[in-house]
Amino acid sequence: MAGMEYTLTGFDDFLERRRVVFVEPLPCTRVCGVCGVVPSRSLLLPCGHVLCQACKRQIVNGEQSCPIDGRQFAEAAVVSINFKQSELEQHRVFCVVGGRECSFAGRLGDLKEHVAGCSNDKVRCAQCQLSVLRSVAVQHCRQCDAKSAPQQIVSTMAIAVAVENIGSLKRDLEKIRQRASSEKVDNDAVLNDANSLMKRMTCLERELMQEGKASGERDLLLPAMKKSVLTYGPYRTFSKPGVFMTTWKFDEIYAGYSAVTKGKKEHVLSTDSGSLAGYEFKLDCKIQTQENEDVLLNFVLSLGDGELDNFLEWPFAKKVTVIVWHPRDERKDIRIPLSMEDPQMVKKPAPDSWNDSISTVAVTWEDIEFHGFVVNDAVYVNVELE
Fold first, then answer.
1. What is the CATH topology of the domain spanning 4-117?
2. Which of 47, 63, 74, 382 is the most buried (most CB within 10 A)?
């Protein structure tokens, strides 16, 4: 899930101080240049920078200078800009409850109604304390291993909390990266935020080390009860620290299979492009038949022109892995490494264009269907960068 997250203020109660991820970035005139909040009323300074009212009130009379570039301004030269909620509601946003696990990407005006019925949020299992999708919570509970292993709950809870903290650190780190890549960056603010992250990481590391010592003692009591963890729902945790990951969903997979079994040589399922680690990607699913009538699936990846290309490393040199995930058992995931070495694949894309694509090795339809990879007529695929 790509997009830009903002905190809203000054609109209705549902949106007040709510953090919302917009599909497309909002105009800079709508965003406070100091705190990043999107207010219903902003103030445009003569130098071109925009402040919310809360930040503007912090400027003491007699020191009328822009906090970003230090330019002096007269109060009479400040222009008030109103952002009507009816206008804000026309922008497309992602679900604030389900996040990447939810496919909603609609008008902000439709978000409240969607949230009321969304079941793609994560809840904590009362047995094992792991996060699962609410839509599959009953299924998880029936198969949860923790019912017979209550001694593991304390350790599992600590791990689950640590995973959530790591996720929060990753989100904050991405915000710092976006701020650092902007044309007008406050180096002191970025440094302060980075130092704050370092302190949080140190505390988290200490907590994990303490829990590791305690869990080592508990493991002596449960040597025969260790099993591979099963996961439920359309999500995966990161395979290792320092990787980026996003998910693509290929709908109507059975229609594609039916098309190639009725004479069509090839059928392509396409999705919207997405951003990962700043790079713009497009992933397609190609279904085709062979002379022996076997049906094969290939996943085709290509790099395209993105908003952050000027701040990224070129040629593209990250390790790429395409993962066809199993909806219940992570051990059955199909991991397909890609070797992107062709200059026409890894060069910096030209404006409004896509580089040459690379295709994964083929996966048979028999494996996909027989082993239960299809979920509600869809196949989910993760792309992981390292």
1. Herpes Virus-1 (3.30.40)
2. 382
